[in-house]
Amino acid sequence: MDPVLKQIDSFPPGCPYDYDGFNMGQSIGKDLIMMFGNHADAECRYVIFCDTKTGKRFKVTFQQEETTRRIMSIFQIEAFKGNIWNTFEVEAENKESATVQFKGAKPEWTIQSIT
User: One digit per residue, pLDDT tens: the chain, 115 residues?
Assistant: First the structure.
């Protein structure tokens, strides 16, 4: 998966460590600090670039398929095919992905409800 860039809440101009006691960092220019939450021997999942003149911050998240946790839920799908009714269970992240998954597996069934 590609890295994701997102502007996050700004800090007042100056030293970001006055407001962020968790992340470590490294100056990479006169007015730019790169902050991170890991040690050099650990996997880096994100970096935060902080402009010390303006206080603006940008976070780059490195989302890797094998390390990104997904919250999955079990959805009950009531469906019918002709006069046959049945209830199916689908594990998915949300109702939309459960619907897509179900229709891909059982295109001949018509969904009545999903809970």
Answer: 578 888 988 889 998 888 777 788 899 999 999 998 877 777 788 899 999 999 999 999 887 655 445 667 788 888 898 888 888 877 777 888 888 888 878 888 888 888 8
CA distance 57 to 71: 28
**Whole-prediction pTM value?**
0.53
How many whole angstroms separate alpha carbon 78 and alpha carbon 62? 38
Rg (CA), the chain: 23
- Cα distances from 51 to residues 31, 68, 110, in angstroms, run 6, 28, 54
Domain ranges of the chain: 4-61, 73-114
For β-strands 32-36 and 24-29, DSSP reports them as antiparallel
Integer Cα distance of 1 and 64 in angstroms: 6
CA distance between the termini of the chain: 30
